[in-house]
Each structure stands twice: as structure tokens, then as C-alpha cells.
Write a structure and sequence with these properties.
It contains seven helices and five strands, in the order ααβαβαβαββαα. It has 216 residues and is α/β, with parallel strands linked by helices. A five-stranded mixed sheet has the order 1-3-2-4-5.
């Protein structure tokens, strides 16, 4: 046999063996990857099942739902007391209104005073956002007894009541820069500083979360 022909045949066989071995290695690698992915998927499913059955998570979820329910009930109770809106009350209802809630923001105003109308606008904008406080207004001209009793001499006058007791007051626009063009945010910041309203929460998001939990 021709030596060159034998050599060529041996080289061809060796190359074929190398390619076959490479193919086998590649196939093994693919199988190993598939097994790893399948194992990871199974583990993920097992972990998820374990989490779903975790008593601690169930307890946290139940506590959260209970807290949201209490908050919803509190909001409903406050709404019944007139919170969430800016209302005018008569002198005869004054004591019942200011003693019926923990925090009350009461604006003594005069119908003809331009600055009272400005204060009205800002308080009306804030009332729906701060359910923890009651926002009301009283016609000073028709409430002489309480105007005298509370020593009101300048309008607009906003008195802050806590548990039925008159505390801080905003007289005119002295604490708001002394100008008519102050912003609602400026009044909001002042009321927050005085502690008569609380830092606003994402109440709508919490209510939506509670409703979704009830549906589940």
C-alpha cells in the first residue's frame, strides 16, 4: 500500500475522531445546561410554595389587612363628623362642632372682607386632603357671643382647637408674609408646623390596597 495513502487515511480518521469527541462534549454541555435550568425552575417553584405557606407572611398580611380596615373605619367615622370638607356652621352649632373632634380649624370671617375670601379659598383646597382635622367657618357678624368670648378683633381670624380648647390662631396674614398672594402650600406648611394637621399620607393608595385585599 502506498505510504502516503496510508498516512492520509490515518489523518482523516484522527480528524473524524476529534470532531466526534467534540460533538459528544458539546452534547453533554447542552444536557448539563438543560438539567441546571430544570433544577433551578423546580427550586423556584418549591421556594414559592414555601413562601405561600409561610405562617409569618400570613400573619403580616393579616395584620396589614386589619390595619387598613381600621383606617377605613376611622375615615368613615371622621367623615360622619364633617371632616373632609370646608363647611360653614351657625353660632348655635359652634360648641358641638369644636368639641366633637380632636382637631378643628375654625375660620371667623366677614362676608364682605376680601381677605376672608382669600382664606376661604385656601382652606377649602386643604380640607379634603387632611381628614384628621375638621375645617369650618363661622360668620363673625352673626356670632357676636363667641367673637367676644374668644377676643377676636381682626379678620380673617383662624383659631386652632385641640380637644375643644382654643390654642394657636392666625390673625390676618401676619404669619403668611403679610401679602394677599400667598400660596395654599404656604398655609399648609404653617398648619403642619403648628401640628393641627398631620403629614399627608397616600390615603387613596391605601384604600385601593384594602379594597383589592377584600376582593382577594
Amino acid at each position: 500500500m502506498d505510504p502516503d495513502s496510508v498516512k492520509s487515511t490515518l489523518q482523516t480518521l484522527a480528524y473524524g475522531n476529534v470532531m466526534a469527541a467534540a460533538a459528544r462534549d458539546y452534547q453533554k454541555e447542552l444536557l448539563a445546561q438543560e438539567k441546571a435550568q430544570a433544577s433551578s425552575s423546580v427550586n423556584a417553584d418549591v421556594d414559592l410554595d414555601e413562601l405561600m405557606d409561610d405562617p409569618e407572611l400570613e400573619k403580616l398580611h393579616a395584620n396589614r389587612i386589619a390595619a387598613l380596615k381600621r383606617e377605613a373605619e376611622k375615615r368613615q367615622s371622621l367623615t360622619k363628623k364633617g371632616h373632609g370638607e370646608y363647611r360653614e356652621i351657625a353660632e348655635g352649632d359652634f360648641l358641638g362642632e369644636v368639641t366633637g373632634s380632636g382637631k378643628v380649624i375654625c375660620h371667623f370671617y366677614h362676608r364682605e372682607f376680601y381677605r376672608c375670601k382669600i382664606m376661604d379659598k385656601h382652606l377649602k383646597a386643604l380640607a379634603p386632603n387632611y381628614l384628621d382635622a375638621k375645617f369650618i367657618k363661622v360668620d363673625a357678624e352673626n356670632s357676636p357671643f363667641f367673637v367676644t368670648k374668644l377676643g377676636i378683633k381682626t379678620l380673617p381670624c383662624v383659631i386652632l382647637f385641640r380637644n375643644g380648647i382654643a390654642g394657636d390662631r392666625l390673625v390676618g396674614f401676619q404669619d403668611l408674609g403679610g401679602k394677599d398672594d400667598f400660596s395654599t402650600r404656604k398655609l399648609e406648611a404653617l398648619l403642619l408646623k403648628k401640628g393641627i394637621i398631620d403629614e399627608k399620607k397616600k390615603e387613596d393608595d391605601e384604600e385601593a390596597e384594602y379594597d383589592e385585599s377584600r376582593r382577594r
